[in-house]
Write a structure and sequence with these properties.
Blueprint lengths: L1 E7 L4 E8 L2 E5 L6 H10 L2 E6 L11 H8 L2 E4 L10 E2 L5 E4 L2 E7 L8 E6 L5 E7 L21 H16 L7 E4 L17 E2 H7 L8 H9 L8 H11 L4 H8 L2 E2 L1 H11 L2 E4 L3 H6 L6 E2 L6 H8 L7 E4 L5 H9 L6 E5 L2 H7 L9 E2 L1 H7 L6 E3 L3 H6 E3 L3 E2 L5 H4 L9 E4 L4 H12 L5 E4 L2 H5 L6 E3 L7
Parallel strand pairs: 3-4, 4-5, 5-6, 10-11, 13-17, 14-15, 14-16, 16-17, 18-23, 19-21, 19-22, 22-23
Antiparallel strand pairs: 1-2, 2-3, 7-8, 8-9, 9-10, 11-12, 20-24
Helix pairs in contact: 3-5, 7-11
């Protein structure tokens, strides 16, 4: 028997590949299926089942394409309803893969159909739990995504989640290995550990949600501090329930090289968003006017999903050379399938064709210190929790995720500084601001990580000496 965690850091997502005696199962696969097909070929194994822990909101699963490619059955937990052929399992149903077994544990709470999968090895011992979004390391799944007006509330779901954890998971042996669907950085939880594998026994001791005195307290603690989910979540759920275009078709369409003239014409005719996936420093120095920067070297897909409201938005790409396919792949993971092509030769080709470019004023932390004064307007686009821990004394917190709500509050005639933690998010904000006509600002390279090393006055509540 082999169990392999396939962890994708930019999505903080874990898929699982299990092989026993020539048969295989895959749990929660990503959109692109070729890596899984390669593993099956290397192991000379036949894929028998594709297990889904729930209808994912934060990414589009590869279950449909993978089933078509291999003939494997797709399995969901009880109550799941799909628009494609799938097995809706019963609670405690057993599935055999080679010499091992997978037992379905219906664990509603995160969603109504949520299920965990219990691995029983060749000797009949319960050895691992693929816990989906029911149980994370250090946290549990958020109970607000499946709520419905006048039908079911987040309090109702949190109560179901408590029952699922107490009745289905807590009685399991401490020695069981927990394999969650997500880790730190995912929007599906609020307090996840950076580790991606742990024992259930350790989680029983350390996970705050598993150590609440009663159901009422659990509900209160789990729903406290939840931020609004990104808007693309609902679209992804619909795609996972109803199916989607083949990933290969999406990739083929997106990998259309466009000359500067073709690129310009399509941008004007289609109202396509120009998405520049280069790093923030290169973007600041030179970019195509009206383009938005979300760098591929970061939490690219989640931020695309957060900043671009409609997954059906046509997109034109500008990338580093050789990063076209990666950009399209990572967009497709969160359902952005309408890439119309990419600018062949990038910004250099654009300039050589006589087209104009734009810049962002990016300054170092040292220059920021030299220009800083007590009456300076400083916008901090980090999350509210980051700001609360430590920030520039007179800075204003305006998290990037809510830019559409606060952008109208900015006085375009008054200069302001903008920063995040390291420069990734502030350049996203800067590109959006400049595309909307705001130009009287300076973005701080290196963000708060660099600002901490200056003498600019700061308030630091993370320091034990400050109460």
């Amino acid at each position: 028997m082999k169990v392999e965690q396939i962890y994708t850091g930019c999505l903080a997502q874990g898929a699982y590949y299990i092989v026993s005696n020539g048969e295989a199962a895959i749990i929660d696969p990503l959109r692109e299926t070729q890596p899984y097909l390669n593993k099956l070929q290397e192991d000379n194994a036949q894929l028998k089942y594709i297990f889904e822990t729930h209808f994912h909101a934060d990414f589009v699963s590869g279950h449909v394409d993978l089933s078509k490619a291999t003939g494997a059955d797709i399995v969901y937990g009880p109550t799941a309803k799909t628009e494609f052929t799938a097995i809706t399992a019963e609670d405690n149903q057993i599935f055999e893969i080679g010499k091992i077994k997978i037992k379905v544990l219906h664990t509603p709470g995160h969603t109504l159909e949520s299920a965990c999968y219990l691995l029983i090895n060749e000797e009949g011992k319960e050895t691992a739990l693929f816990s989906g979004d029911t149980l994370f390391l250090g946290d549990v799944g958020r109970p607000d995504l499946a709520q419905k007006a006048n039908e079911i509330t987040q309090e109702d779901l949190a109560g179901m989640l408590y029952d699922s954890l107490m009745n289905k998971i807590m009685p399991l042996p401490d020695s069981i290995t927990v394999y969650p669907a997500h880790g730190a950085g995912s929007a599906c939880g609020k307090n996840m550990q950076k580790e991606t594998v742990d024992t259930l026994g350790n989680q029983k001791k350390s996970n705050y949600a598993l150590n609440q005195p009663n159901k009422e307290t659990f509900i209160k603690e789990v729903i406290t501090g939840l931020t609004p989910p990104p808007q693309y979540f609902g679209y992804n759920v619909a795609m996972n329930k109803g199916g989607y275009d083949s990933f290969q078709e999406v990739l083929h369409k997106g990998l259309t090289p466009l000359s500067p003239e073709e690129f310009k014409n399509i941008a004007e005719e289609s109202s396509a968003l120009i998405l520049d996936t280069r790093n923030a420093g290169d973007f600041a120095q030179e970019f195509i006017p009206q383009s938005i920067n979300i760098g591929i070297k970061g939490d690219f897909a989640p931020w695309v999903g957060t900043m671009i409201v409609d997954v059906k938005q046509p997109i034109l790409l500008i990338t580093e050379e050789g990063k076209e396919e990666e950009s399209i792949t990572r967009l497709s993971r969160v359902g952005f399938d309408h890439v119309l092509g990419y600018l062949k030769g990038g910004v250099t080709a654009w300039k050589n064709a006589g087209e104009s470019t734009d810049t962002i004023e990016r300054i170092s932390a040292q220059e920021f210190e030299n220009r800083y004064s007590e009456d300076a307007t400083v916008i901090d686009v980090r999350k509210e929790g980051e700001f609360a821990a430590s920030h520039i004394e007179n800075a204003t917190t305006k998290p990037l995720a809510y830019i559409n709500q606060w952008v109208g509050d900015i006085d375009p005639k008054k200069h302001f500084f903008i920063h995040c933690a390291g420069g990734y998010r502030s350049m996203i904000a800067a590109s959006i601001l400049q595309a909307r006509g705001y130009r009287n600002f300076s973005e701080v390279e290196g963000g708060y990580n660099a600002i901490k090393n200056t003498n600019i006055p700061k308030t630091d509540f993370s320091c034990p000496s400050q109460k």
